[in-house]
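User: Earlier you gave me the apo prediction for this protein. Now I'd like the version with zinc ion bound, so I can compare the two side by side. Same sequence as before, with the ligand SMILES added.
Assistant: Got it. Here's the input I'm using:
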Amino acid sequence: MESLPVSSKLHSGYHHPLSRIWQSDRRVNKSTFIYPVFVSDLDRDETAIKSMPNVYRRSVPETIVHIAELVKIGLRSTIIFGVPLHPGAKDERGSAADDVQGPVIRLIHALREQFPDLFIVVDVCLCEYTNHGHCGVLNQDGTLNNATSVARIADVALAYAEAGAHCVAPSDMNDGRILAIKRKLISAGIEHRVLVMSYSAKFSGCLYGPFRNAACSTPSFGDRRSYQLPPAGRALAWRAVARDVAEGADVIMVKPAGSYLDIISDARKSHHLPIAAYQVSGEYSMIHAAAAAGVFDLKSMAFESVEAILRAGATIVISYFTPDFLMWLDEPVSKL
Ligand SMILES: [Zn+2]
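And here is the structure of the complex with zinc ion:
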């Protein structure tokens, strides 16, 4: 042991809880998180999502009560997903998406009024609102009509922005939608106050199952593999990210997060803008299931998963664990 050089002594750098925290380039804190909420068009609704422990679909009033509790303990941002449940609410072109009486626009107004410091992100897509469950307007043959879909998505984004959203986040993956949204915002004169977060590297796969239960957005036929990236498509993700940056995205997103750390790292190295990573429903539910089976401690694994996402290069983490982290991050540092 005596022959070891002094520089081999590494333990001194992380023997204390605080010095362990100093080893991370990006630290988990309350500003790291965006919390996803599912808001339905029912008058009263608080329905547990069976496949996602502690996650509920709520109507507008119940969502406001829930958000109020979280704002008290430090919630900084939420991302809203609308869930139309009324019979007849869905049609070919997803008309309910930007209905001013719909739950998303009503919730934006209410949150802006009641929580002035809360940063409001709204997911922009049509799949929750179309009767076919796909993320755009279809051609006769069932494929997505790019031009019509992009125009419709841009209109929906503008409606959310005009209602007061700080950020619109198109998740539809139609080619060219970032540019179309930016142009819409510029012609409305509000581009300076609306951030565009693009779901750029959104991979297809089986980790979205619980979300689709929550958002009731499973396609009625086919799947989304023709417009979501194949899981092995690293180069394709690089191109999608570069394209969205060139079209004016302010933030780009990688989704899912934990299985795509290399994609986060690629984006970090190639571009100078904030990177969001979506720890999706399947990742969340897997961690819960394994913890319930005694494989590991829930909190330790939740931290480990988010620290890995930040270490790979993410700035922002969209996670269903947000309410837990708001509490955990208030605990004494020795417990972290
Ligand atoms: Zn969609």
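For your comparison, keep in mind: The chain has a mean pLDDT of 93.
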